[in-house]
Amino acid sequence: MSYQGYGQQPYGQPPQGYGQYPPPQQGQYPPQQGHYPPPQGQYPPQQGQYPPPQQGGYYQQPPPGQYPPQQAPYGQPPPQQYGAPPPHSPQPYGAPPGQYGAPPPQQGGYYGAPPPAPYGAPPAQAAPPTPPSLGYGAPQIIQWDGTQDAQALRGAMKGFGTDEKVLINILSRKDPLQIEVLRTAFERQFKRSLVEDIKKETRSWFEYGLVQLARGPLMADVHNLYDAMSGPGTKEIVLNDILLSRSNADLHAIKSAYQRTFRRSLESDVKGELSFKTERMFLIVLAANRAEDSAPVIPQQVEQDVMSIYKATEGKVGTDEILVCSIFANRNDNQIRAIAHTYKQKFNRSLESVIDGEFSGHMKEALLFQLLHAVDKYMHAAMLLEDSMAGLGTKDHLLISRVVRFHWDRQELANVKGAYQQRYKKSLTSRIRGETSGDYRTLMVACVGE
C-alpha cells in the first residue's frame, strides 16, 4: 500500500496554515520517525538502505484546551535522535504526548547493522528484551489511592438507578496501573466484584465497554480470547487483534494469565479451534520467539528472508505457508519492514500483493495484519478502527475492544487519530459519534479523549 506524503516547513517556523496539512510534495513517504510531516528523507530510500524504524507518527498539536494535551512549543530542539539510548520509562498516563516524533517505548535497532561476527569470534551480546506493555508486567506499587473513586463507583451503582456519567468519567480516565489499584480497592472495601457489579447495573454495549475498562488491558485480552474460542465457531479476528505483532513479554503475560484464570493453557485451546496450518502458525506466534525490538536489521538476513519468501510463494508451484508464517512470526517490525522494502526492490512487486494472491482465509488475514502493522502501525490501527464501523452495521465488539486497547497508551492513540484523519479526511471522534448512540457513544468518545 502506498501513501502520499507531505512537505515540511523549515525548522522553527510556525506550521503552514496552523491545524491544516501543507500541500503534498512528490514522492515522499509518511514518516517512520521524526516530525509529521517528515522533515527529511524520502521513500523509497536509496539503493541499499532500509526504511527507518517507525518512531513518530501522525500526531498533530490541537488548539489550546483540547485533547490531547499540548506538546512542547513548536520550534524547540528536535527530539532524541535515532540510535540514542531509549527513554527510561513510558509517558505517565494523561501526560502530554511530547514533541511529535518522540520514540515510542519500544526502540528498534539501527538499519544496516554489521553482519554477524566472523566464525570463532566471541558471540555478540543478545538484544535486550522488549519490556512488557503497561499493565502486562509484574505488579507495581504506585503513588495513587483508589479509595475515593471506588466509593464513587459504588455510590453510582447502589440502590435504584445508575449514574452512568460517574462510571464513564472514572473508568475512561485511568491508566492500566490505576485500574488495577481501583479494582482491588473496590473489592477490598465493599467485598464485591467491580466487574460483576457493572454487569448487573448496566446493559448491552455500554456494559461491554465498561467491563473492558474495569478488567484492564491484560485481563480484557484474556477474557476476549476465551470468549472468541467458546461456543460455536471461532472469532479469528479477535485472535489476530490480541496475539499478532505482540512482544514476547506481552505474550508470556497473556499465556500466564490465561492459565491462571481458566486452569487451561492458551496453546491447547488454540489447537482445538484452528485448522491445521493456521493452528501451526499461531503456535509459532505463542512460542514467543520473536526478535526483540532492539535486534538490528542485518542485510544478509533480510536478503535470505526475501529469497525464502519468494521461493515459498511466487518461485514455486504451490505455497510453503509455514515457512512464510515462521519468518513473519519470528522477525520484529523493523525487520519485516526491511523485508517488504527489499522484496519490492528485487521483484518489483509488493509483498502485500504476494500474500494476497498466494494465501487465503484466516492465514492471509493474519499475515497481512503482521505486515501492515510492521510497515505503519498507526495507519494499520486506523484501518482496523474503520473496518469495525464500515459496511452495514457496526461490529460493536470489535469497535469497543479496539478503542479501549488503543486508549491505554495516549501517545499511540494520538498518532492513531492523526493517521485516521489523514486517511479518511474526518476525525475518529466524529466517525464514532455517527456509529454509536446513548451512553455507549459517550463512553467511546471519552475513551478517545474528547
TrEMBL record:
SMART domains: ANX
Keyword Cell inner membrane: no
Segments for region (Disordered): 1-140
Domain of life where this protein originates: Eukaryota
Annotated keywords: Annexin, Calcium, Calcium/phospholipid-binding, Repeat
PANTHER family linked to this entry: ANNEXIN, ANNEXIN B11
Free-text comment about domains: A pair of annexin repeats may form one binding site for calcium and phospholipid.
One GO MF term: calcium ion binding
Pfam families from the UniProt entry: Annexin
The protein's name: Annexin
